[in-house]
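lol so apparently i was supposed to do this last week
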Amino acid sequence: MKIFKDRHILQKEIFNKPISFVPTMGGLHKGHISLIKKSKKYKKKTLVSIFVNPKQFNKKSDFKSYPKNKLRDISILKKLKVNYLYMPSIKDIYGFRPKNKIYLHNFSKRLCGKYRKSHFKGVVNVMNRMIEIIKPKKIFMGKKDYQQLFLIKKFLYKYKINTKIIECNTIRENNGVACSSRNLLLKSNDIKIASYIYRYINKIKHSFNDNKFNFIKNKIIELGAQKVDYIEIYNTKKNFKRSKKYTRHCKIFFAYYINNIRLIDNV
Ligand code: AMP
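anyway here it is w/ adenosine monophosphate bound
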């Protein structure tokens, strides 16, 4: 595996090579690994990036406490026989003016966008730059962060960029909790709470409707969450139209805090 810190050197290496790209912020887990394995099935070189993007964090403290484990991540990627790893500095990513402006579809104002101001602007900003540097044929993204995936798709469409997003299923621990780098910040009792919450929402999803919102929110708090940001239903096939009921192609999106750690998921 070749490791790059400088975008110019990376660009020389991958020039004219079809690339399958897996962007990450490190703290690698089974979710990331499934994306990488899927990418490796295509007959292209797999490039993984590890970059904890400061612009998508709302609080400096959250950015600072984000789990980082460079050596462990590199060893995982080597075992997976990844072709290229790009680990840029902040300057390498933000030290140039990209060709395209940040484009944010209106859906960026919903769900996480409502509670984490400028989060998606930061996400699209970094992806715009990564895409300009790497020019990937395919990008592998997880449905765990469905809103992010949708907004990147809309960004590519807006600028007619010839890159395909491959949507990857959410990988979960045995207790149902979606794998996430942030889980490393949770204590064992917090993980139990996250598991109860996932199981509860999964169980009641078919009877969920907007009228029950307060009841369900209170139940999630009773199960041990500190606070619920949102729990809403959207139809993922109908351009993320809000739905009152859980029907075919719908998903329940939720975000909540346990012990000051913010977790998101959808079922
Ligand atoms: P992150 O490192 O959290 O920025 O995530 C990098 C990529 O991995 C994103 O496309 C995420 O949606 C995806 N991802 C994160 N967690 C999971 C998971 N549990 N299952 C599948 N994909 C995931």
